[in-house]
């Protein structure tokens, strides 16, 4: 599984997000060629260079506006530019999802209707390029899961076209509802509305202590130099090449509460799977087999938990092989909103299309409809794919 972890200890902005993915290895030429598909070349130039932030060599990405004409574009105009382009479907969907998050927050903060919000003068082109560039880079990396740290927003005040705003800026605060945030002593805006919308749109989870097998690390520079490194760090974790083991133990002397706790701990520590099977052991004792599937790099951490949190004094370890289908995750628009869908292929043919259960659950809750009805969007998904 390819996991991308966003380490937002100095926050996240649109520029930093794009820069971090370029630093991770996305082809610069590929990104620039894809961006041409937006057909707004005459409005901007792109500056990509290497800079140091508190001694860390990082990639810097900036959009320089070449026109001083004001493009007071609303969400409808921006969706039109994206839809008319030859960008691929996933890039279009993700770009529109991010823009909608920014638009909804601006609408809420300024008390306007979503499609009445005007993305501001300079902001429009800049945000279009940041958001679409990010979507192109993420699509290029073919990531299975995105995890983010808690978000450092910065603190103090920021001056922008509105005048002076508190940090996090009102739109940023609105976007980050429900997401864990914090700030340190730095009196700057570390997370911008665009950065917040990007992370909200793509992160499947927000957690600080995350087991990762580091394959590659990228650093995207923030605009200003601060004492602490003002960079967004991204970590690519890919344990697909890792050897896999099935660890088993037969246990007849634990309580149900202990089994529940043990399973939570094992998943948190990075087990690929944990399951219990009921068995009868020696002396006719009803008991349980603990089964844990784990990659070699996580094995020690998992054994530490088994031996401290269960009563077993030994385990069996079996090396296992897997046959995995090629898979990709797409976001599909439905009448109830966006749903993530996992598509699996066998010999180049689609053999399975599965909407994320969590998204169906959200649809059922938000629309106050039975889960059974939410699962009926499957037909719509097949049609819109
Ligand atoms: O232009 C507008 S409406 C605007 C609104 C807000 C609100 O919080 S409301 C904040 N800002 C500030 O503009 C810059 C640019 O942000 P990007 O996300 O476009 O990079 C940033 O300082 C925002 O806080 C602008
Ligand atoms: Ni605003």
Given helix and strand content, the structural type is alpha+beta
Could you list the spans in which at least 5 consecutive residues all have pLDDT below 50? none
- Total individual domains: 3
Compute the CA-based radius of gyration: 23 Å
What is the count of β-strands? Answer: 20
- Ligands (ions, cofactors included): ligand L2XS5X25, nickel (II) ion
Outline: globular
The separation of the N and C termini measures 23 Å
Q: Mean of the pLDDT scores?
A: 91
Strand proportion, as a percent range, falls in: 25-35%
Major sheet summary line? 5 strands, mixed
> Helicity level, as a percent range?
25-40%
Q: Trace the largest sheet across and list its strands.
A: 11-6-1-13-12
Number of helices: 12
GO molecular function: lyase activity; nickel cation binding
Enzyme class: lyase
Organism: Caloramator proteoclasticus DSM 10124
EC number: 4.99.1.12
